[in-house]
Specification:
This protein is mainly beta. It is built from 3 helices and 30 strands. The chain has helices at 28-34, 265-272, 287-290; strands at 49-55, 70-72, 92-93, 100-102, 108-110, 113-114, 120-122, 124-127, 139-147, 159-167, 182-187, 195-200, 215-219, 231-238, 245-250, 253-259, 276-284, 306-316, 329-330, 335-336, 342-344, 347-350, 358-363, 368-375, 381-390, 398-404, 413-417, 422-436, 439-447, 455-463.
């Protein structure tokens, strides 16, 4: 949750972002846990992993959390910190068991309440420990099995449940956000069937991490909605890869990855060279709900709980993840768009284009994809071709741009694209580019005057 003022960029809900075809399978235990009973225990760690923290929230109905593990945040701000928790949310957080309590069936309930005068209260807890980080060359996995507040539509206006983490240097300072890092494993607003995951870092506003939006993506719950059943939300921070990366998943399916080379080395180090602590809360109102209609208002129903079955933190001393591709691409042969080395805002998905396979979709203003080591040879390339499709609404369009060696360098070429008649209605679009020779890292960047998705890309190449 962007508790210090970050608000993940809303992603249009034009199509399910589950991206099953892009799933990077995780431990079978995670998938099993996603469909287990409401009172399931934290899963047994897979081979090679060690459990370093867990709470199954077992205890008598109406009792509070174990304060050896958790602390309550109370009031409307950290001591000396930004008002309204830095987000504009309107509730007062309490340690009352009317807001934070065990249900007696192995779940924690965080429940927003509204009194007769219209004032909201809710709950926010965070781990006492601030040392959660992967070992050198290893991995950290932080996961929780959660049912979001079971309320939708107008009755859900203003609801903002979250499961997230903040960098340890924030504790006691409260003014060094976003540089110290924030990892939003699950955020939801307004009772939508959507899970947002985001990394915040760098400087605010703007900066290398596009604050206050951060580097984020979203997906949808399947089987049951996010509100209708328990789902497993996880973050895996992997120091066994090069570059280091942080992956976010829903029910064992990875839908968002942030890699160290997406930002400069100092920004990444400031956000990751320390431990983190874990937070669970349900806010009411604030910047993120405002982006989806606002609230709470008189039609909002109080009393709907976020239910947390367990929180678990695992470590692995070594990894087996295969590093991403590192170049040796021929500029004059089709480069599959889904073969990127790094990206922001990109969602791979199955395509019906000739040859099948995958395209990259959900491309909107500010998104980008990196393809390392593209060899143009000694005879200059002067043409760029991309296979694109768009089902964007009337008046929505944008640029597909080619940049070399930096995503902020001046484009060497671009073309504009609007609707092609559908998100799988493909056409090959040519564009002139400035002469390019040698080997370069190629960035496809996407720029639009509207926030909506405007293009999918299947492949691209270059010509003389």
């Amino acid at each position: 949750m962007s508790a210090s003022s970050g608000i993940p960029r809303p992603r249009p809900l034009r199509r399910a972002l589950v991206a099953v075809a892009a799933a990077l399978g995780l431990a079978a235990a995670v998938a099993t846990a996603a469909t287990a009973p409401a009172s399931a225990s934290a899963p047994t760690p897979p081979a090679g992993w060690t459990q370093v923290f867990a709470d199954d929230f077992n205890g008598a109905a109406g009792s509070g959390v174990n304060t050896a593990d958790w602390r309550y945040d109370t009031g409307t701000a950290y001591p000396g910190g930004a008002a309204n928790w830095g987000t504009g949310e309107v509730e007062t957080m309490t340690s009352s068991t009317s807001n934070v309590a065990l249900d007696g069936n192995g779940n924690l309930l965080i429940t927003p309440r509204r009194d007769a005068s219209g004032h909201w209260t809710s709950g926010r807890i965070e781990t006492n420990r601030t040392d959660f980080q992967p070992p050198a060359g290893g991995k950290l996995r932080v996961q929780a099995r959660i049912r979001m507040p079971d309320v939708t539509g107008a009755a859900a206006k203003g609801y903002w449940p979250a499961f997230w983490m903040l960098g340890a240097p924030f504790r006691g300072n409260y003014w060094n956000w976003p540089g110290i890092g924030e990892l939003d494993i699950m955020e939801n607003v307004q009772g939508l069937n959507t899970d947002w995951a985001t990394m915040h870092c760098g400087t605010n506003p703007g900066g290398p991490c596009n604050e206050t939006s951060g580097i984020g993506n979203s997906t949808s719950c399947t089987g049951t909605t996010c509100q209708g059943g328990f789902h497993t939300y996880a973050m895996e921070w992997d120091r066994s890869t090069s570059p280091e990366e942080i992956r976010f998943s829903l029910d064992g399916v990875t839908f968002h990855t942030v890699r160290a080379d997406q930002v400069d080395a100092t920004t990444w180090a400031n956000a990751t060279d320390h431990g983190y602590f874990v937070i669970l809360n349900v806010a009411m109102g604030g910047g993120f709900p405002d982006a989806f209609g606002g609230g709470p208002d008189g039609g909002t129903e109080p009393g709907h709980s976020m239910a947390v079955d367990y929180v678990q933190v695992l470590q692995s001393s070594g990894g087996t993840t295969t590093p991403p591709p590192t170049g040796n691409r021929d500029a004059y042969s089709a480069i599959q768009a889904e073969s990127y080395d790094s990206q922001s805002g990109v969602v791979p998905e199955a395509t019906t284009d000739t040859g099948g396979g995958q395209d990259i979709g959900s491309l909107a203003n500010g998104d980008w994809a990196l393809y390392k080591g593209v060899n143009f040879g000694s005879t200059a390339a002067r043409q760029f071709y991309a296979r694109v499709a768009s089902g964007a609404a009337g008046g929505v369009s944008g640029l597909v741009e080619v940049r070399l060696d930096s995503r902020t360098s001046t484009p060497v070429g671009s073309f504009a694209v609007g609707s092609t008649g559908g998100w799988q209605s493909w056409r090959t679009v040519p564009a002139n580019i400035g002469p390019v020779t040698g080997t370069h890292d190629v960035y496809l960047t996407f720029t639009s005057g509207q926030p909506a998705d405007f293009v999918n890309v299947n492949w691209f190449d270059f010509g003389h």
